[in-house]
Request: fold
Amino acid sequence: MSGDPVVFLPGMMCDARLFAPQIAELGQDRVVCVAPITRGERIEEIASGLLDHLPPRFALAGLSMGGIVAMEILRRAPDRVTRIALMDTNALAETPHSSAGYEPLVAKLRAGMIVEAVEMVLGQDVLAPGAGRVEVLAQVIEMAEALGPDTLVRQVRALQRRRDYQAVLRRCQVPALVLCGAADGLTPPRRHDFMAGLIPGAELCVIDGAGHLPVLEQPAETNAALRGWLTKPLMLQRRADA
Reply:
């Protein structure tokens, strides 16, 4: 095994199965693990709990809500994160208006309507169109049902109260990959272009034929981008380490 361990953080409603293609590919020659983002009422609490159990130093890759938790981990423990990949995510805090927009989702979850809740989040403009969309949607429903409505409501509440991470990204001094699906209508490419512009030396990768979940929609292309990120030289070192 070579390189630092890779820690993947899944999105809301998802578990380790989200990264099955990445575990199978990248796990051939390095240590790969998936950390749950299910314990905590706030993003800060989730990140703090994970740091107690993660390796001393690690490469960090988060998708959607997992990307937000990854940014909080970077804020709290920058010296432990050797490189970071932010996928289909958002560095901005919710506005009062956008936060209120989660309430219909919370209502469905509290009513036990998990299938309807997943379909609400992954609407027609969120996953890429095509034959694979139905299969990916079914996988997310299976993961969401395994997590259960109480956990999903906690995740929504944590998202509603999240902070702005623009300053954190500006201070990032490790190799960074900002990746998204070209058809992601939930966190669109223009938002990732903005995030990549905040991070010194960041690489932006937009995956064709994928929406919000390129790790499942286009695994080969996503794995290639992640391999490139993992082999990037550690050129940006903190002054204190020099």
